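Notebook entry, structure prediction.
Reason for the run: the old model in the group folder had no record of what sequence produced it. Starting over properly, with the input documented here first.
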Amino acid sequence: MSAAPRRPVAPVVLRVALVLVLLEAAVLTALSLWWLVVLVGEGSRVLAVALFLLLFGLGVAAVLVAAARALLAGSRRARGPVITWQLLQGATAVTLLQGGIAWGWPLLALAAAILVLLMTRPVVAHTTHEVVADPEPV
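New structure, fully documented this time:
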């Protein structure tokens, strides 16, 4: 009886990208929980908007974690949600920079870094089930 074929180990570039994506998910979760504390402590004049922001942050964080797991397993469909979030984050960062808010730079850099990492050949190969030959040892 033969064993099932094993999935190749995820390339380092993908693992770096996934660490960054999980960092984003952790920050979104922390900000959402902070928003919940503020909401409970101080209340909100527009409760529906406050609850939407809370659920949106937690929902995006959950999608990012699920997509990271799927990318690690080799799913190509998981690139879509991650790339979409990076584009939205990049657009938000540009808007912040236009408003003179300097912390738009780290957001823009993070989004760009993840986009670039997800488009590298090893990541695309890993998530499309291509076999990429390892470079010959020197």
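Summary: The chain has a mean pLDDT of 89.
The old model has been moved to the deprecated folder.
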